[in-house]
Amino acid sequence: MQCFCRAIVEVFSEQYLRSPTANDVARLLYIGKQRCFSEMLGSLDCMHWRWKNCPTAWAGQYAGRSGSPTIILEAVADYDLWIWHAYFGIPGTNNDINVLESSSLFSNLAQGITPPAHYNIGSKEYDTGYYLADSIFAKWSTIVQTIHDPRGPKKHYFAMKQESCRKDVERAFRVLQSRFAIVASPARGWKKNHLHDIMKACIIMHNMIIEDERDLSAPIQDAREAPTPVVEIVVNEHIRFQEFLARYKKIKDKDAHFVLRNALIDHLWDEYGHSNI
C-alpha cells in the first residue's frame, strides 16, 4: 500500500494537486459570481485525522482538542468538491490560524506569481481573489468570514449565504472520508511520511473521481478562457524583497478584510436580497 500511495503521488500530483491555472481561476471566479459571491476562489477549512499509532514521545504534541493525537489537513475546495489546496502534517495541538501561518496557500500570491483575478464590487476594483472561511481564521484581506451575531437584514442575508457556500469544503471532507475508509478510520501508520502519502493519494483519487463525474454540458461548467499571466521578475534582489514584503503586508491587512466584507454585504443585498423579502 505504501508503494501504491507513493506512486500515485509521484505520477499524478502535478495534474490533480496543482494550483489553479489562469483558466481555472477564471472559471472559479465566474462560478463564484453565479453563486452570489463575486470572485470567490473556494472555501477554506481544516480537518483532524486521528493518529492511533502515534509514538508515545509525540503524543503530547499531537493530542488536540479531542484528547487523542491527530494530524491536521488544511484544504480548499470549490463548488463541485475539487480540492485545490492540501496542506497536511501539522500536529493536532495547533489551531486553524497556526496552520494557515505555516501553509503555502498564499506563498505564490506573496511572490506575485498567481494568475490574475481582477473584478469590481460596487465602485471599488480588486485584484486578488478570496476564500470563504469560518470565524476562527485570521482576518486577512484574502479571507471572508461570516458574521457571528448578525444584526439587520443585510448582515443576516450575508451570513446565510456565506455559511451556505462555505460548506463546500466541509462536504468535501465528508465525501473524502466516505470514499476512503482509511481516511475515515484512525491512522495506523507509524511514520508521518507514510501518512502524508496516504492522505495525498486519497485526495488525488478523489479529484480524479470529481473530474470523471463532472457534467461538462452543465451551464455552471462553462469554462472561461484566460490568457496565461506574464510574470516579470525583478532582477534587483532588494526591490524583489521589498515587493514581497508589501504583498505579504497586503495579504494580512485587517482593514482591507473588513472593507471587502462590508462591500460584499452591500453587494449581496443590492443584487439578491431584495428579491427574498
Q: What features would you describe in this structure?
A:
Helix content is 48%, strand content 15%. With 277 residues, it is of the alpha/beta class. It has one domain (2-218, 230-276). A 5-stranded mixed beta sheet has the order 3-2-1-6-7, sandwiched between helices. A two-stranded antiparallel ribbon has the order 4-5. Helix 1 packs across helix 8. It starts with a helix and ends with a helix. Mean pLDDT is 85; it is low at 219-231.
Q: Can you give keywords for this protein?
A:
48% helix, alpha/beta, 10 helices, 277 residues, two-stranded antiparallel ribbon, five-stranded mixed β-sheet
The topology string of helices and strands comes to HHEHEEHHEEEEHHHHH
Residues in β-strands, percent: 5-15%
Question: How many distinct domains?
Answer: 1
Average pLDDT number: 85
First CA to last CA: what distance? 55 Å
